[in-house]
Structures are given as structure tokens and as C-alpha cells.
């Protein structure tokens, strides 16, 4: 069981077009490489896990943007945190909308 869910959208500044997409793709690859459950959406990526670990991941996502060439970065972050009962999974929240 995990106690937190984080949705993050990074917006690298000082880059445009294909370079901006490359940087965002690098961040998404990092998020997926954490081994945590992730869901990539059209505006943000959601990731589930331990609250403290998710905060570290959100920090690193922004640092990646800078290392990859952005002059600055804005990050829009939403967090659900329940240390006692945990939070609903991505699947529980979205399964009815993604039936094949």
C-alpha cells in the first residue's frame, strides 16, 4: 500500500519546440525509471508511492529540466497524502474511463 499520489507537470522555460518536448520526455523517462506505478496523461504524469520519496522525485524532475538545458522551470504539482489509510490507486480512480 502507498500513502501518496503525485501528479506533476513540468514546463521548461527558455526552450521551445522539439527541445522542450525532449526535456519533458526525459523527465517522463525518469519518472517511469523509479519503478513506481506511473500514468502518463496529456498534461501531467501521476505517480504513486511513499510521500517522502515522491517529494524527492518531484525535486529531481525539476533539476532534470535545468540539467537538460532549460533556463528555468515551472512545475505544477498535485498531491494526495493519507499516512493512515493510504490513497486510492490510479486504477481505482480511472478504470471506468479506460475500459478496452
Short summary:
The protein contains three helices and four strands.
Structure write-up:
It contains three helices and four strands, in the order E-H-E-E-H-E-H. A hairpin with a 4-residue loop joins strand 2 (38-40) and strand 3. It has helices at 17-33, 51-67, 90-94, and strands spanning 4-13, 38-40, 45-49, 72-81. Strands 2-3-1-4 form a four-stranded antiparallel β-sheet. The chain is globular, with a radius of gyration of 14 Å. The chain has a single domain (4-97), classed as Alpha-Beta Plaits. Helices cover 39% and strands 28% of the residues. Helix 1 (17-33) packs antiparallel against helix 2. By secondary structure, it is of the alpha+beta class.
Characteristic key phrases:
4 strands, 4-stranded antiparallel β-sheet, Alpha-Beta Plaits, alpha+beta, 100 residues, 39% helix
* Arrangement of strands in the largest sheet: 2-3-1-4
Percent helix range: 25-40%
For the sheet with most strands, the description reads: 4 strands, antiparallel
Q: What share of the residues does DSSP label as strand, in percent?
A: 25-35%
Q: Give the helix tally.
A: 3
CATH architecture: 2-Layer Sandwich
Task: Give the N-terminus to C-terminus distance in angstroms.
Answer: 26 Å
Structural class: alpha+beta
What series of H and E elements makes up the topology? EHEEHEH
Rg over alpha carbons? 14 Å
* General shape: globular
SSE map:
Blueprint: E1 4-13, H1 17-33, E2 38-40, E3 45-49, H2 51-67, E4 72-81, H3 90-94
Antiparallel strand pairs: 1-3, 1-4, 2-3
Helix pairs in contact: 1-2
Amino acid at each position: 500500500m502507498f500513502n501518496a499520489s503525485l501528479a506533476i507537470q513540468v514546463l521548461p522555460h527558455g526552450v521551445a519546440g522539439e527541445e522542450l518536448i525532449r526535456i519533458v520526455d526525459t523527465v517522463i523517462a525518469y519518472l517511469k525509471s523509479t519503478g513506481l506505478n506511473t500514468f502518463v496523461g496529456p498534461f501531467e504524469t501521476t505517480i504513486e508511492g511513499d510521500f517522502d520519496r515522491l517529494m524527492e522525485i518531484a525535486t529531481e524532475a525539476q533539476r532534470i529540466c535545468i540539467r537538460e538545458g532549460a533556463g528555468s522551470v515551472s512545475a505544477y504539482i498535485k498531491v494526495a497524502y493519507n499516512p493512515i489509510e493510504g490513497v486510492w490507486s490510479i486504477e481505482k480512480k480511472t478504470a471506468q474511463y479506460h475500459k478496452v
